[in-house]
Design goal:
alpha/beta, 12 helices, six-stranded mixed β-sheet, 46% helix
Length: 310
């Protein structure tokens, strides 16, 4: 499992303690157009936008039709709204992630994985991790590798949308809090956590190329290829797929169906992995709730008129 891509496409988790968080700012526009969907009835409009939680600088994704949909909304809804106080966030994470007794990391992976672990610790310099649970070690290494690859949550889609909403005085709410998101990993058995760590170590060397390909597919709106990536990430991990994707998609589809009963305009932003592949959010809306989501096409610039002699 490529943990870096999984987190980028499915979970809006906080960056590890100490990671730099520069001020978010929209990047210059490019011809690319990530997928935007809309569900509407007589008095309710809900736009659904698939996001990547961390992006490289210079990624131009904030296209005019996305901007128009957000600016015309009464409410921005994200997977989760991270606490404004980083100390509060750090305290919550450390409470869940700390072990009762320290255990050396080398003993948690097979001998064949120890060179990769030692190399990652030397290169990424995460600090002492023996006192933390194995899932947290995997997340920390994945996040630090993501930062080394040039992906930054502070200029990810949620950060930019939140800043735009603040400027436009649009309220922001979350479908979940951070604690349940961390609890998905904390619920794994120690054996599964160790497999998670091993898979993370195996994917660190190719993470930059994988990240570039993922961002390119997302920018171009290639939801079929994003679905292939998500499916590949969960090979051999059906339980985690159900927790991170299946159960959450079902809850969010039900939330959208309930919200359609109230008038207003909502911009809903969730990880792009939730809008791709079997059982995706758009599919569940139609199959279980009779709601048809339509893909919003980016307006094409008008061709300049050629002057003709009268």
């Amino acid at each position: 499992m490529r943990l870096l891509l999984l987190v980028a496409l499915l979970l809006a988790l906080p960056a590890p303690a100490g990671a730099a968080r520069p001020a978010p700012a929209p990047a210059p526009a490019s011809p690319a157009a990530p997928a935007l969907w809309v569900v509407r009835d007589a008095d309710t409009v809900i736009h659904i936008f698939g996001t990547v939680h961390a992006l490289p600088r210079g990624t131009g994704w904030f296209r005019p039709h996305v901007l128009e949909a957000l600016d015309g909304s009464d409410l921005l809804v994200l997977e989760t709204v991270l606490p404004a106080d980083p100390l509060a966030m750090m305290g919550l994470t450390l409470r869940m992630a700390r072990r009762a007794q320290p255990e050396p990391l080398a003993g948690r992976v097979p001998e064949t994985s120890r060179p990769a672990l030692e190399a990652a610790l030397a290169r990424l310099n995460p600090g002492p991790l023996d006192q933390f649970k194995t899932w947290y070690v995997a997340l920390t290494l994945a996040n630090l590798q993501s930062a080394a690859d040039g992906l930054d949550p502070a200029i990810g889609v949620e950060a930019v949308l939140t800043e735009r909403a603040r400027i436009r005085r649009i309220p922001v709410e979350g479908l979940e809090t951070v604690e349940p998101q961390l609890a998905y990993f904390d619920a794994l058995s120690e054996a599964d956590q160790r497999l998670f760590l091993i898979a993370t170590l195996d994917g660190l060397e190719t993470s930059q190329d994988e990240a570039k390909a993922m961002v390119a597919d997302w920018l171009a709106g290639r939801t079929d290829l994003l679905a292939d990536r998500v499916n590949a990430d969960f090979e051999g991990s059906p339980m985690l797929r159900q927790m991170l994707v299946g159960d959450r998609n079902a809850r969010w589809a039900a939330w959208i169906a309930r919200r359609m009963e109230s008038p207003g305009r909502v911009f809903l932003a969730v990880g792009a992995g939730h809008l791709a592949g079997p059982g995706n959010l758009v599919e569940l809306l139609e199959r279980h709730h009779g709601l048809k989501a339509e893909r919003v096409a980016e307006p094409q610039p008008a061709r300049p008129q050629r002057w003709r002699r009268p």
